[in-house]
Each structure stands twice: as structure tokens, then as C-alpha cells.
Design goal:
Distance between the termini of chain A: 21 Å
Oligomer: heterotetramer
Distance between the termini of chain B: 51 Å
Strand order of the largest sheet of chain A: 10-7-6-18-29
Order of helices and strands of chain B: HEEHEHEHEEEHEHHHHHHH
Structural class of chain A: alpha/beta
Strand order of the largest sheet of chain B: 2-1-3-4-8
Number of domains of chain B: 2
Number of helices of chain B: 12
Radius of gyration of chain A: 32 Å
Strand content of chain B: 5-15%
CATH architecture of the largest domain in chain A: 3-Layer(bba) Sandwich
Largest sheet of chain B: 5 strands, mixed
CATH superfamily of the largest domain in chain A: FAD/NAD(P)-binding domain
Shape of chain B: globular
Largest interface: A-C, 49 and 45 residues
Number of domains of chain A: 5
Helix content of chain B: 25-40%
Largest sheet of chain A: 5 strands, parallel
Number of helices of chain A: 18
Radius of gyration of chain B: 21 Å
CATH topology of the largest domain in chain A: FAD/NAD(P)-binding domain
Chains: A alpha/beta (662), B alpha/beta (324), C alpha/beta (147), D alpha+beta (349)
Helix content of chain A: 25-40%
Number of strands of chain B: 8
Chain lengths: 662, 324, 147, 349
């Protein structure tokens, strides 16, 4: 039997003016288990807390109920006070007789009656409380960043600068990501490579950062503070230590027909290659699928020409197992496939291109060495059409329902750059809305229209038809003038929607991080915890969480780093003790609970049980209290009642219900 | 049936299976019981006829713990239950050798007796071989006949189909015996006024004697310890001391199996008081189908179960009132 | 209002509120002095997904006349997905209660954010009024509790 | 001997109900069970067996024992009043009558169960002979004559007339109360005898009537208890309580508390030896497997009870469990199995 103390706060007149606090004390004393009750002016004051402490000590209280303001206000205060007096902090319950009672009721009798019932419910609950102790777990002071684009690089740099080790795992042969493919960036028109390359170099040179390129995360186990990750280092076929990056192998490689991923397939590369000149590491990989040596066994030119003897055809994939305290996902995006948008003739005409392809065409290192030309015949275009929202803001199932966010701005950038460099080219942009929230964004767009004479038409393009003469007939509607437009263009650029990198689904499953219907990783809270996954210890950086531009990505990368640093700075983690627990004897092992757990906190083990003398091995649920956040979804999903939530147990809630309905 | 027995004998003899879970012939013409057979001579009592309504899936929970494989005879509708148990890790597929047995509708002795047929000595027409149109019943009060359809279990009138969902081999033909709308009665009740609904269920549930037959026969109610037997929830009640308790028991039971109930109809088959317990389950199934998309538990074991899954655009609970 | 008309009957109403949104919304209603009848008593739960249908039936058993559950708006759940599960569970439960003839107005779910003190108070006023109009719960009560 | 025409029966019910509770087989939701008759109800007297036995009238499925009330920290205890209302159970069959005899041996033996005793004292039983016994009946095996039920009043329904014969003082008193509705039945003895003969002839044809109880006695306790047959027999058992709850002789009960919010109601309710928490105590269960619980039921009915009650079995052959067991298990199958085994054993020797 508990020995319960009840403390009724006047809160000055906030409570006492409407609730007869003496009556509450008197009635509380009649409840089972209550051995002490008193009221006081301000329970949260030093003096009030001292009264609580004194009563705990003198009356040997095992639980207390404070009738006061909302627990959201002072629950922590009273828990700490109880703890100082030697009582387990989870033996404290609050009856909210201010926000839920005195402040909303005017009639004293009625308010007092309600306060008595609320106190009674809290007493009934605390009668069933048990002392709880937060668990502890160690923190491995190293972070893993998945993805080596600008988001991953920035996150890694920030974490490393704080003094923690960081590993970056990048799937492709080089870090740099999408940003390395861009020519210029809005709204300042900086050269993308010029601002990205120093960051790449800095990351590579940082003593706290280890970069695994051409590598993938294979397996993740463990939980916040203590993840174990298997990383597959794919065989590069080139010895990283010996290679000097001279590039001779690439020049001499006889297999040159592979579409270049970096240039979006607009030109080709050799089978041994580095994706781009500034690649980090500047060590090529052999694409075994297209390598003559690997396919036929006859060739070996690269090994012959390599002065350093770095070519190693026998290299095998290697699995590295590392421990991490925090994991940041920065897997980025790709543009969507345009299979559902035949009307734009993307697959029929070489002169219909995506914006990302235009970036490569405009880039001096790109397939046309930076000359704006039609890919079909190499002629300079005179008339260019940009189509916005291709696959974005789509109300049917063909594309994405969301706004890709970056297209308005990069199209303004493209239009401006073309008009600047080739003033004789006419540029027309078909848009639904022009969205330019962001610092200097609208000014940028207006410059495109006002200074550079870009022709913006609000309207949708219905069809792009290649003509016999090689030009493209664009049929559109002008929504403002309410007329149909037919115009001929030399090139059409599609502002193609972006979507999360398709690999993210696999990674999310490994991390038990939740993902939304568009494959974006879900944040723990849309507003208040935007860079954390609901799964503890997993953080989100960049477009994997939602569409964003470079400045936003960098901001979020920094924010994710701060959250990771906050975690790594701790020596150990105290876990919320109000977690779910499964009764091994009642558990059916049916997996229902695991299906509703948003944190992947429930696993199944075959355990030896002794069920009243019957010894057998059973499949039972095990809750990892470091991962469990205490929502209670599993407790209701569990049909046998094996799963219960500490601090909000079935019996506790039922006791409250009974006390209220009595 | 001979083909079935021959095959079982073979599998038992060559050691493929350690035992057989089927039906043993009863001492009355209509009461075969679920039974294990472990050797050739025991098989002489093996029977499979129209009265073998019992769903043997649930016995496989226990059988999964035994050494060696258990051959189990499952009718098409029983295989849904087996699948569901498999999904919930309650049975071990490796421990089961499933013979999908043919089914042309199972018989309900209560329905025969309700027609005033009593003192039954023998029944012919319940054998499985050919689909009989009628039953001939010898009684101490003379010979009676009864149309096969009129003696069929309620669940067979809303048959889920003749396809077995899981099996190692099939023996015997099945037919789809559907001749009624599965949700007709649910719809009829839905159309009643609250007073009528309440009166209907009060009348039915007042018969409940809390024998727990419905729960214990139910393949979805496979908890090691039911919440109503456990002290953990403060819900341990044995008797219908107040009319509330039956409601609590049957609503919660239906809720616990919602999305998992395959509508095998065993609950209604075994209720000694003839309470149409399947109505609770069907109501949930109908709601799930209408609100969250067609779902048949036990059909696809990889599918998301309705109550452990959601969509962002799910109906709000207020739809209950809005539907009228 | 019907409250004055019916002096005798004071309903018992249990409100389950999730800690993160609705309980805070109720706090805000309090600090904004937005009144609602004292018949409503709030039980704090971590999330709407913690509310077991058994709790709701238990409340009726013990004499409650109405039960309302409040949680974060769909999409805003502190635990991401809790209220989505709760929504399905409660929809089915309420539908079943309706099916067996328990007046549908006695149960309700409302999504109330921490900023919606006004909505909290309005919802409670509306719900209490509804319960007054329905009168005493007799269809789901254990009569032994009256003694 | 008296008689009354069938169509006049409602008048009879009404008369009895004037100052007594009248329990009759009533059909509710398609199932006949004994329940208190109210004006307008139609009796289901032609139903041979009600689903539940009429034992509820004397030993209800659940009944309050006492109530504790809490007022602040003060507790008060109110015992439950004993039954004082006179009542009549109309239409009980011979097997169920024997069932009451069995209950008497349990509840009226020292220490007397006062709740049960009060009901027995205030209850009058009007029994009805079984017009057409069925294949699940085996009362004769226990020496019961379903053609001639001995209660306070014995009745026979022959054609459209009910023949009424008071046998005890209570029966005479009831007869006096309704005598103006009854008519003297002259020469009825012959009619009734013919009916009895007819019933007995039917009984002879029933499949279970020649069941042998050989070997079911106290001496066989250990042999029966240790028999390997139980392990085989119990297998289909679902551990539900159907057999025990429809049984006219099962008498086990559990005592439980119900929290009313203002105190506690202590009540008893039927328990079933088939339930996993049967006889559960603080240390756990003394029967841990379903086989043990299953064995308990039959050992109790056929061995322990007769051993303690001069050979009186606590089964009356009503056959309800035969009809209602969801797994088609029953006491007949158990008895037969043991007999077969014995016969087989005999042959071998």
C-alpha cells in the first residue's frame, strides 16, 4: 500500500479564488492510501517545495499528488523536488486544478467538486505508480554521413570542426553530388564548382573526416548512440594508395562508349574513369561492366600504361564494420523519369532536354564545352522555350503532387545566362506560378524579365511536336490573355520535378527511419524537429527530407550537424523511462506491435520462458528502451495486453477512468 | 474419402509426416471430432464428411511445437485461417504438411434438428463423394429428408470460394456454395433505429453464458492468455453478472480480431446459444472494406493489416454519424 | 441552453487528451479563460494511440455518459503516426458501438492542436450539450455501479 | 390426478405468477432456456432440452454474496438477503430433477449453503415427463426414468392435455392454488401408464441407453487417474466451458469482487474446470495442463463424486454436453473409450 501525500496549491488566488482548497484537502484525506494532505499559497515556491520535501521525509511518503497548475508547467519542478527529498521522481502525479478547473469555472461549488475528482483520479493513479529509473547507454563519438553531396559535405565539415570523427559514405566514385554538375548558382550566379571544390578539398583534407567513395551502406544495427554499420567498399580495381591521378589510363582506355553519368548521358566516357576533373578522390575506378578486360579478358591497356602500377584487376569488394553514435542521411535527389510525359517529346527529340542537362551543356567542361547548341545538329538555337512544373504540382498520378521548389529560380537563372551570353536568342518561359520566396530571389527573377527581356507566359504547354525541319512546334495556352499559342522553338528545356534518390527507401528500411508516400524521409516534427528523424539518432540533411535549394540545404546540413554534435557531446544517454514493456509470459510473438512502432524499437527474440512450470522457447517481443519514445501505439495493437506502457499503464489509466466516473 | 485416406496412409508410412490431424468418426452420425492419428490402424476411424466443419488451423499452433511434420486437412476456408496464423508467427509452415481437402459446404446439425428431426439414427447424403441434393435421415420416429442446402452452416451460404490459399497438395473437389449476400444481415441491422439495434443485440447477447467457446475455437483468438483471463487489465470476468459484460466481451473480442478475422464462422458454429456472433466480425470487415479498401484476412500474408496500417486521407471517426 | 432545462442530470464525461497537442490546447483554453462545463474531466495520455477501446468501454461501464478523445491533427502527431492508428481504431470502435445501438453522439474524436484553445473549449461545450440532449447512458452501463 | 387442456395453460401460468415467480422454458432468440415467465410469453414446453439446465433457478450462474460500501475511510458490509420469494419451476425433466438431487448433496450437506438452501425451500418443482426422448439422452444409464419424474408435481403432456399429479405437500399446496383451473381426470391413470410405456419403449431404442458404467467406482480411482487414455481423449478439447455451463450437475463456482466505485460487490459465479484459471491460487494452479483439467471433469463426475456420495454419479445423462461441445467431445465418448480399452485388454488376456 502506498503512503500518499496530497499538496494543494492556492496559486495565489488563481486557484483558491474558485476552488475551496481546504475542501480538496479534506476530501483527499478520505481517499485510500492518502496519509497526508495540506494546502499552501504557492507550492512551486522554495517554501512550497520545502513543505513537500518535509512531508516526504517525515511521513515516509511513497507517492505524492500535487494539485496545481498544468503538469506541462511544473511537473519537472515537483519531480525534482521529490527526488531531492529521496522519492523517486516518477512517484509524482499532478492534478491540474488550474487550467482545467479554476480558470474555466466560475461557480465555486462546481469547481471544488471537479477539483476533488481530479485529485481523486491522480491519487488513484499514483496508487499504481512504480518507481522508474531512466536507462543509460553509451555514445560512440563518431558520426556517419550517408551521401557526399553538398548536404553531406557540409554536415561532415561542421561535425568534424566540432572535434568529432565523421565518415562519409558516397555511392559514386567521387564526392560532390548534384551541385558538382551545376554550372552557375542562383541568385548570385557564382560558378558552382568554384564554391564547391574548396569544400570538397577541405573535407578530404580534414583529419577528422574519412571518406568512403564508391561505397554503400550495407547493414545497420543498434540504436541511438551505438549504431553498428557495415559499409561495402566496392572494388575500384585501382589501388588508392598507388594512383597518382595522372589520367593516362583514361586517355588510353580503348572502351569509350559508355554514357557519362556525370554529363547525364549527353556524351560518353571511358571504362576507367573519374567522373569529372575535380573529383575527390582523384582516383579513377574501372567500370567492370564496360571494361574490355573484365568482359573478354583481353586488353589490360590501363595496367600497361600505369606508371605507378596502381591497376589491380583482382581487387574485391570489402566490408568495413564501424560503430557510430549518430547517422546523418544526406542522400539527395534525382530528376524524375519522363516516361509519363510523352507530350513534351523528350524521348523523340534530342533538342528537348531537362534543366539538369542544360546545366551540363552550359558548363565549360560539359559535352559541348559550354557552347549553347542543339544536340541534334550542333546549330545555335534562336528560339528557346522553357516549360515549368514538368511533373511537379501534379494533381493526377503521372507526376509528383509537391512543388520541386528550385525550378522557378534555376529557370530564371538559365534564361538570364542565355540572354546575357547570346542576346540574339529569344527565351520564352511557360509557367503556372513563379515562386520566388527567398532572399534576393524575386529581385533576381525580375531582372530576368525586366533587364534581360525574358518572355514569361502564364500557361501550360499542351504539346511539343518535332517538325520535319528539325524545329519544335510548341502548343500552349496563355492563361492571362486567354489565347492559344503556337510557336516554333529550336530547343525546349523541361523543368523536371525532383524526387528523392531511389536508394533512400532501402536505406530508410535499414535505419528504421520513416518515409512518406513520396519517398522523402519524415522528420520527427514538421515544425519543431525538422532535421531529426522520428528514429532517435538519425538526422536528415538536404533534399532527402524535402525539396530545397543550395542555401537551404547548407542551412539544414548545419542544423543536422548541430543536432548530431549535441548527441555526440554526451557521454551517456539517459532514456525516458516511460517506455513500453512486454510481458514475456503474455506475449504471442505475433509482430503486431512491431508493425505500428514508428521507431523500430521492437524486435523479436526466441527466449526461454518459464510459464508456471512449463519451460519452453518462445518468440517474444523485446522493446529497446533506448529507441522507444513511449507513444503507446503498441499497447493497443497488442491483443493479449502483454505490451504495457510504464508511467501510463493500462491499470493506471483504468484507475483514473474509474475515479472520474465514480 | 478413400483417395484421401490412401494418400495419408502413404505419407504416414514413408515418414513424410509424423502424425495426421483430421477427424475421427463420432458415435453419432453427426459428431466427428478433431483428432490426431499416428499410425496406420488408428486411421480406420478417420472420417471426412459433411459434418467435419471444425477448422483445424488452430490446432496447428500446438502441433507446430511437436517433433516432425503434422499432416493437416484443411478446407478452402480453413486455409485463410492458417495463413493468418502464419503471418502472425503462430504456426510453423515447415511443421505442416497441408492437404487441401475438397469441400462442398458443411452441415449444421442444429439446422437439421430445428426442422423437428430428432432421435437420429443415421444420416446418408453427408458423404463428400458426390454433391448430394438432400439428406436422408433415419430416426427412431421414422425416415426424414432434408435438403442439403437447408442444413448448411450459415458460413457456407457466404462461401469465400473453392480455392485453397495454401497447401502442399489438393485432394477432392470443392465448390463455391455462395447463395447469399455476406453482408445482408449487417446491412439490415445498420438500417435499424438505435433502439431496434439495441433491442436486437440485447436479446441475442442476453443468451450468452460466457462459456468462451467462441473465443476458444477462434483461430484469431490465439493469445496464450486472453485479456479476459488475465488480471493485467482488470478485465478478468467469468460470468455475465451484468448485461454490460457480454457487450464488453464481445465488442473487445471482435475488436481484437478486427483485420485478422478471416470470417471462418467458427464462433457462430459453436455457440451453444446460437448467437450470431459472426455479425460483429462481419460488421468490422464491412467497415474495413468500405473505409480502407477491400481486405480479406489470410489471403495475402504480405499485405498490411488494416489496423496496423493507415493512409493520410483515412476517414474521420465522425463518418459513423454522418453515414446515418 | 438545455443545461438549465435539465437540472437533475449532470453527465459524467471523460476526455482523453494527448500530452503534446490537445492537453496543451486544454491548458490554453484554461489560460485564456475559455469556459466549458465542469462535467468534462480530462485524462492525460502520451498520444491518442495510447487510448485503448477498453478504456472507453470501461468509462461507459462505470457510468460515463460520453467519452471524447482528442489528439494532434493528422500529420502533426508528436510520434509521427500515432493519431493515424488512433483514427482507424476509433472509427471502427464507434461504428461498432453505433451498430449495437449505443447512441453515436456519446463518442467523439476531435483533433485539437496546442494553439487551439478556442477550439478545445468550443468542442467541449458542443459535446456536453450533445450529451445533455441524449441524457443518461443506460445502454452501456454496469448497473452494479449505481448501487 | 388432474388435467388441464393445453390451450388453458396460459391461465395456469397467470394464476401461479400471481404470487410466485414462475420459471418456464421460454424461447428467446431461437433458444429455449428457463426464464421467469411474464404475461405474453409463450412457453416452449415441447422442447425436450433447454440449452442450459434449469439449475439456475436454485444455483444461479452468478449471485451476489455481500456488498462492501465505502464512505470516506469508513467501510460497511451488507450481506445479500436470502431468497424469500416463493417460486415454481415448471417443466423440469427427470434428468434435471436428478441434477438437483446432486446439487443437494453438495450444497445442503454440512456446511449448508444458505443461498442455495433458501432457494430450495421456496421453490416448488413441477416436472414433466419426456414425451419423445432423443438420441443424445442416456438418463436410464443412471437409473433415471424419464417417463415418471418424481417432483412436487409430476406432469405428462398427452395429446393436447396436461396430466397433473401432486406428489408432495408443496405439490398439494400448489395444486390447491390452481385447483379451479384443473379438472379431476377420471381414469387418467391408464392413459398416463400408456404414455409411460410408450416413452420407455422409445428409450429402449436410443443408442446410448445401454452404456455400461462398469468399472467406474471408487476402487478404480488410481487406475482411471493414471490411464494413458486421457492424453488421447483430451486432444480436441478447446478448453471452453460449454459442457460445464450447460450441465445440470456441475457445481463449481468462483468468488470474485466487483469494484462498483463506491465499494465492492462480492459475488460468486459458475466456474469451469476446463478454464485455465480454475482453482488458481496465489502459488499458481495445481492442474497445469488441459489434460489434467479435462481428466478432472470426468473423474469428478464418475469417480470422486460417487466415492463420496454412496455411489451417486454426478452425471444424469441429459446429453446436453453431447449436443453442445464445439469439438464433439463428451462424457459418453469417454465412458465408451474406457470400455473399449477394457474389452480389448480382456481379449488380449
Amino acid at each position: 500500500m502506498q503512503r500518499i501525500g496530497v499538496f494543494v496549491c492556492h496559486c495565489g488566488s488563481n486557484i483558491a479564488a474558485t476552488v475551496d482548497v481546504k475542501k480538496v484537502v479534506e476530501m483527499a484525506l478520505l481517499e485510500p492510501g492518502v496519509v497526508h494532505a495540506e494546502d499552501y499559497q504557492y507550492m512551486c515556491s522554495e517554501a512550497g517545495q520545502a513543505k513537500i520535501a518535509a512531508a516526504i521525509r517525515e511521513k515516509h511518503l511513497t507517492g505524492i499528488v500535487v494539485c496545481s497548475c498544468s503538469p506541462r508547467m511544473h511537473e519537472t519542478t515537483f519531480r525534482k523536488a521529490a527526488e531531492r527529498a529521496g522519492l523517486n521522481p516518477y512517484m509524482v502525479e499532478i492534478a491540474n486544478i488550474r487550467e482545467h478547473c479554476s480558470w474555466i469555472h466560475k461557480d465555486m461549488e462546481e469547481a471544488t467538486k471537479k477539483a476533488v475528482i481530479l485529485a481523486r483520479a491522480a491519487i488513484a493513479k499514483v496508487n499504481l505508480n512504480t518507481p522508474l529509473k531512466p536507462g543509460e547507454s553509451r555514445v560512440t563519438k563518431r558520426a556517419l554521413v550517408i551521401g557526399g553531396g553538398i548536404a553531406g559535405i557540409q554536415t561532415a565539415l561542421d561535425i568534424a570542426d566540432a572535434g568529432y570523427e565523421v565518415d562519409i559514405v558516397e555511392k559514386t566514385p567521387s564526392i560532390g553530388g548534384r551541385m558538382s554538375q551545376l554550372d552557375k548558382t542562383f541568385p548570385t550566379l557564382d560558378c558552382s564548382a568554384c564554391i564547391l571544390t574548396p569544400k570538397m578539398v577541405e573535407a578530404a583534407a580534414h583529419e577528422k573526416i574519412k571518406i568512403y567513395t564508391y561505397s554503400e551502406v550495407e547493414k545497420v544495427s543498434g540504436f541511438v548512440g551505438d549504431f553498428t554499420v557495415d559499409i561495402r567498399k566496392k572494388a575500384r580495381s585501382v589501388d588508392m594508395d598507388k594512383c597518382t591521378g595522372c589520367g593516362v589510363c583514361q586517355e588510353k582506355c580503348p572502351s569509350r562508349k559508355t554514357p557519362s553519368e556525370f554529363n547525364r548521358g549527353l556524351n560518353t566516357r571511358s571504362a576507367i574513369y573519374t567522373p569529372f576533373a575535380q573529383a575527390i578522390p582523384n582516383v579513377p575506378v574501372i567500370d567492370r561492366e564496360h571494361c574490355i578486360k573484365f568482359q573478354t579478358g583481353k586488353c589490360g591497356v590501363c595496367a600497361k600504361v600505369c606508371q605507378a602500377g596502381a591497376i589491380d584487376y583482382g581487387q574485391k569488394d570489402e566490408i568495413v564494420t564501424e560503430k557510430y553514435g549518430a547517422i546523418v542521411v544526406a542522400t539527395g535527389f534525382d530528376t524524375i523519369k519522363l516516361d509519363n510525359y510523352d507530350e513534351y517529346a523528350y524521348s523523340q527529340s534530342k533538342d528537348v532536354i531537362t534543366s539538369l542537362e542544360l546545366e551540363r551543356i552550359m558548363n565549360a567542361a560539359g559535352p559541348t564545352k559550354g557552347h549553347l547548341e542543339r544536340l541534334s545538329d550542333g546549330k545555335a538555337p534562336k528560339e528557346m522555350v522553357f516549360i515549368q512544373c514538368v511533373g511537379s504540382r501534379c494533381s493526377d498520378n503521372r507526376g509528383k503532387s509537391y512543388c520541386s521548389k528550385i525550378c522557378c529560380m534555376y529557370t530564371a537563372k538559365h534564361a538570364m545566362l542565355i540572354r546575357d551570353k547570346y542576346p540574339d536568342v529569344n527565351v520564352t518561359v511557360f509557367y503556372i506560378d513563379v515562386r520566388t520566396p527567398g532572399k534576393n530571389f524575386d529581385e533576381f527573377y525580375r531582372r530576368a524579365v525586366e533587364q534581360y527581356g525574358v518572355n514569361y507566359i502564364k500557361g501550360q504547354v499542351g504539346k511539343v511536336a518535332p517538325q520535319p525541319d528539325g524545329r519544335l512546334l510548341v502548343q500552349a495556352s496563355d492563361l492571362l490573355d486567354n489565347r492559344q499559342i503556337k510557336m516554333e522553338a529550336d530547343m525546349v528545356v523541361l523543368a523536371t520535378a525532383i524526387e528523392p534518390n531511389p536508394d533512400v527507401r532501402k536505406i530508410a528500411t535499414m535505419l528504421t527511419a520513416s518515409i512518406d508516400t513520396n519517398n522523402f524521409l519524415t522528420e520527427a516534427h514538421a515544425k519543431l524537429r525538422p532535421v531529426e528523424s522520428p528514429t532517435a539518432g538519425i538526422f536528415l540533411s538536404g533534399v532527402c527530407q524535402g525539396p530545397k535549394d543550395i542555401p537551404e540545404t547548407v542551412e539544414q546540413a548545419g542544423a543536422a550537424a548541430v543536432k548530431a554534435i549535441g548527441l555526440l557531446a554526451k557521454d551517456k544517454l539517459l532514456t525516458n523511462p516511460c517506455t513500453a514493456q512486454s510481458d514475456i509470459l503474455l506475449c504471442n510473438g505475433c509482430s503486431t506491435c512491431a508493425n505500428v512502432c514508428p521507431y523500430g524499437a521492437i524486435t523479436y527474440e526466441d527466449k526461454e520462458v518459464n510459464d508456471h512450470g512449463i519451460r519452453e522457447t518462445r518468440r517474444v517481443a523485446v522493446v529497446n528502451s533506448a529507441l522507444c519514445q513511449g507513444c503507446g501505439a503498441c499497447t493497443v495493437a497488442c491483443p493479449s495486453g502483454a505490451m504495457d506502457l510504464q508511467g501510463f499503464s493500462n491499470r493506471q489509466i483504468i484507475a483514473e477512468v474509474d475515479a472520474i466516473c465514480r | 474419402m478413400q483417395k484421401l485416406i490412401d494418400r495419408i496412409r502413404e505419407l504416414l508410412a514413408d515418414g513424410t509426416v509424423a502424425r495426421v490431424l483430421g477427424w475421427r468418426t463420432g458415435d453419432l452420425p453427426y459428431n466427428p471430432e478433431p483428432a490426431y492419428f499416428e499410425c496406420e490402424e488408428e486411421l480406420q476411424d478417420f472420417v471426412y464428411n459433411g459434418f467435419c466443419g471444425a477448422n483445424l488451423s488452430k490446432y496447428m499452433i500446438e502441433a507446430s511445437r511437436l517433433e516432425g511434420k503434422t499432416l493437416v486437412c484443411l478446407k478452402p476456408c480453413d486455409t485463410y485461417s492458417f495463413n493468418q496464423l502464419l503471418k502472425e508467427h503462430r504456426v510453423d509452415r515447415e511443421k505442416a504438411y497441408i492437404i487441401g481437402v475438397g469441400c462442398k459446404g458443411k452441415l449444421d446439425i442444429e439446422k437439421i434438428k430445428k426442422q423437428g428431426i430428432k432421435g437420429i439414427e443415421s444420416i446418408s447424403g453427408a458423404e463428400i463423394e458426390e454433391a448430394a441434393e438432400s439428406l436422408t435421415i433415419q430416426t427412431i420416429y421414422g425416415e426424414k429428408t432434408c435438403a442439403y442446402k437447408d442444413a448448411m452452416l450459415e458460413r457456407c451460404h457466404v462461401c469465400k470460394g473453392k480455392e485453397h490459399q495454401i497447401y502442399d497438395e489438393l485432394i477432392g473437389d470443392s465448390s463455391d456454395t455462395t447463395d447469399a449476400d455476406r453482408f445482408a444481415q449487417v446491412r439490415r441491422i445498420e438500417a435499424m433505429s438505435p433502439q431496434e439495434k439495441f433491442a436486437f443485440f440485447q436479446n441475442e447477447l442476453s443468451k450468452c453464458i460466457r462459456c468462451n467457446a467462441c473465443r476458444n475455437v477462434c483461430p484469431a483468438c490465439s493469445c496464450r492468455k486472453c485479456v479476459f483471463d488475465s488480471t493485467k487489465f482488470d478485465s478478468s470476468q467469468k460470468a455475465n453478472a451484468d448485461s454490460f459484460e457480454e457487450k464488453m466481451f464481445h465488442i473487445i473480442r471482435a475488436f481484437h480480431v478486427a483485420g485478422r478475422c478471416t470470417d471462418c464462422g467458427e464462433c457462430s458454429r459453436v455457440c451453444p446459444q446460437g448467437i450470431p456472433l459472426h455479425l460483429f466480425n462481419r460488421k468490422f470487415i464491412k467497415d474495413i472494406n468500405e473505409l480502407y479498401g477491400e481486405y480479406q484476412a489470410g489471403e495475402d500474408i504480405t499485405a498490411d493489416t488494416p489496423l496496423t496500417h493507415f493512409t493520410f486521407g483515412d476517414a474521420e471517426p465522425s463518418i459513423v454519424g454522418e453515414r446515418g | 441552453m438545455s443545461i438549465e432545462k435539465n437540472e437533475e442530470f449532470r453527465p459524467k464525461i471523460v476526455a482523453f487528451c494527448c500530452n503534446w497537442c490537445s492537453y496543451a490546447g486544454a491548458d490554453l483554453a484554461g489560460s485564456s479563460r475559455l469556459t466549458y462545463p465542469a462535467d468534462v474531466k480530462i485524462i492525460r495520455v502520451p498520444c491518442s494511440c495510447r487510448v485503448n477501446p477498453m478504456f472507453i468501454l470501461r468509462a461507459f461501464e462505470k457510468g460515463a455518459d460520453g467519452v471524447i478523445m482528442c489528439g494532434c491533427h493528422p500529420g502533426d502527431c508528436h510520434y509521427s503516426t500515432g493519431n493515424y492508428y488512433a483514427r482507424r481504431r476509433m472509427t471502427l470502435l464507434f461504428s461498432m458501438l453505433d451498430f449495437i445501438g449505443v447512441e453515436n453522439g456519446r463518442t467523439r474524436v476531435e483533433w485539437v492542436s496546442a494553439a487551439e484553445g478556442v477550439k478545445f473549449s468550443a468542442t467541449m461545450n458542443e459535446f456536453v450539450e450533445k450529451i445533455y440532449s441524449l441524457g443518461k447512458n443506460v445502454r452501456l452501463e454496469d448497473l452494479r455501479c449505481r448501487s | 390426478m388432474y388435467k388441464i387442456a393445453r390451450e388453458k395453460m396460459p391461465q395456469l401460468y397467470r394464476r401461479i405468477a400471481e404470487n410466485k415467480e414462475l420459471y418456464l422454458p421460454l424461447e428467446i432468440g431461437g433458444q429455449a432456456n428457463f426464464a421467469v415467465w411474464e404475461e405474453g410469453d409463450t412457453a416452449a414446453l415441447d422442447v425436450l432440452k433447454t440449452v442450459k439446465s434449469p439449475k439456475d433457478a436454485f444455483f444461479p450462474q452468478s449471485e451476489n454474496l455481500y456488498t462492501c460500501k465505502r464512505d470516506g475511510k469508513k467501510l460497511s458490509i451488507e450481506p445479500q438477503a436470502l431468497k424469500e420469494q416463493e417460486f415454481v419451476v415448471f417443466g423440469m425433466k427427470a434428468c434435471d430433477l436428478q441434477g438437483v438431487q446432486v446439487l443437494d448433496k453438495v450444497f445442503l450437506a454440512d456446511p449448508v449453503d444458505s443461498f442455495y438452501a433458501a432457494r430450495r425451500e421456496h421453490g416448488t418443482i413441477v416436472a414433466l415427463a419426456c414425451h419423445e426422448p432423443e438420441e443424445t439422452c442416456f438418463c436410464k444409464v443412471f437409473g433415471i426414468d424419464c417417463a415418471d419424474p418424481a417432483a412436487d408435481v409430476a406432469c405428462w403432456m398427452i395429446a393436447d392435455e396436461l396430466f397433473w399429479k401432486p406428489l408432495t405437500g408443496k405439490g398439494e399446496a400448489l395444486t390447491a392454488q390452481v385447483c379451479d383451473l384443473l379438472t379431476e381426470a377420471e381414469g387418467a391413470e391408464e392413459t398416463v401408464e400408456a404414455e409411460k410405456e410408450n416413452i420407455r419403449r422409445i428409450v429402449e431404442k436410443l443408442p446410448y441407453m445401454h452404456l455400461s458404467l462398469d468399472g467406474w467406482n471408487a476402487d478404480a480411482q488410481k487406475e482411471k487417474f493414471d490411464s494413458p487414455l486421457w492424453e488421447e481423449l483430451y486432444k480436441p478439447c478447446l478448453a471452453c466451458g460449454t459442457c460445464t455451463f450447460v450441465c445440470p450437475t456441475c457445481q463449481c463456482y468462483d468468488i470474485k469482487d466487483y469494484d462498483t466505485g463506491h465499494g465492492v460487490m462480492r459475488y460468486r459465479c459458475w466456474d469451469s474446470c476446463m478454464y485455465s484459471d480454475f482453482t488458481m491460487m496465489a502459488h499458481g494452479n495445481n492442474r497445469t495442463s488441459q489434460m489434467q483439467r479435462f481428466r478432472q471433469r470426468f473423474m469428478h463426475k464418475l469417480v470422486y463424486f460417487p466415492a463420496n456420495n454412496n455411489g451417486c454419479y454426478s452425471c444424469v445423462g441429459c446429453g446436453r454436453c453431447v449436443e453442445k461441445c464445439p469439438a464433439s467431445l463428451n462424457i459418453v465418448k469417454v465412458i465408451k473409450k474406457f470400455s473399449e480399452e477394457k474389452a480389448a485388454g480382456g481379449e488380449q488376456q
